[in-house]
Design brief:
CATH architecture: Alpha-Beta Barrel
Number of strands: 8
CATH superfamily: Aldolase class I
Number of helices: 11
CATH class: Alpha Beta
Radius of gyration: 19 Å
Strand order of the largest sheet: 1-2-3-4-5-6-7-8
Structural class: alpha/beta
Shape: globular
Distance between the termini: 41 Å
């Protein structure tokens, strides 16, 4: 299972790529707004820092405009994947960009039907929003399992990159289901390496070294 870092902060990316085996970067408008940065000011740096794909969101909402923006973004680096919400115009844009050899990442996936349409359009990645679905009373992991079954049954090439994960248990469940990738914020990535028992045993070992 690949692990992508959800971040638009070059300093954070630099630190975590060096510390963990990160496979790529994803970002969204919310992250850009939180960091108070414009995409064009950080894109080149993020592409340079990332060891793999960099998933970049589009601002446009109409199909032709999404395609034009996707082409312009993809021209910056061969690492860039165009992140497009799943809706009618988005699906048309995904299909067009796919036909031109430009990688796409279908996002805001909240149903198996949406995931099916994204795969048929040729999306390279699809991101079910697990945590957001859970908050509505719908099991996000059930959707992930459905997507895996559909993609396996019809041999779609689209990779499932689970997003909106809230807990380390979510990450574990995604891994056990056999997803292709997850995208995680810094907090959750760092929590994966932590456990209270590990901390306690480590302290015991340190104390033992001091007694030698």
């Amino acid at each position: 299972m690949k692990i992508f870092l959800d971040s638009a902060n070059p300093g954070e990316v630099r630190t975590l790529v060096a510390q963990y085996a990160i496979d790529g970067i994803t970002m969204n408008p919310g992250l850009l707004a939180r960091e108070k940065v414009r995409l064009e000011t950080v894109l080149a740096t993020l592409c340079e820092l990332s060891p793999g794909p960099v998933s970049v969101p589009v601002r446009a909402v109409e199909a032709d405009a999404i395609v034009a923006e996707g082409r312009a973004l993809a021209a910056h680096s061969d690492r860039i994947t165009i992140k497009i919400p799943i809706h009618a115009a988005g699906l048309r844009a995904i299909a067009k960009l796919h036909s031109e050899g430009i990688r796409t990442h279908a996002t805001v996936c909240c149903s198996a039907n949406q995931g099916l349409l994204a795969a048929r359009a040729g999306a390279d990645y699809v991101s079910p929003l697990v945590g957001r679905l859970d908050e509505t009373g719908v099991s996000g992991m059930d959707l992930v399992a459905q997507l895996i079954e559909i993609y396996d049954q019809y041999d779609y090439d689209t990779q499932i990159m689970v997003a909106s994960l809230r807990t380390t248990t979510h990450v574990q469940e995604a891994a056990l289901l056999g997803v292709d990738a997850v995208t995680l914020p810094r907090r959750l990535l760092e929590e994966l390496a932590q456990h209270p028992l590990s901390d306690r045993v480590h302290e015991e070992f340190l104390a033992a070294w001091k007694r030698l």
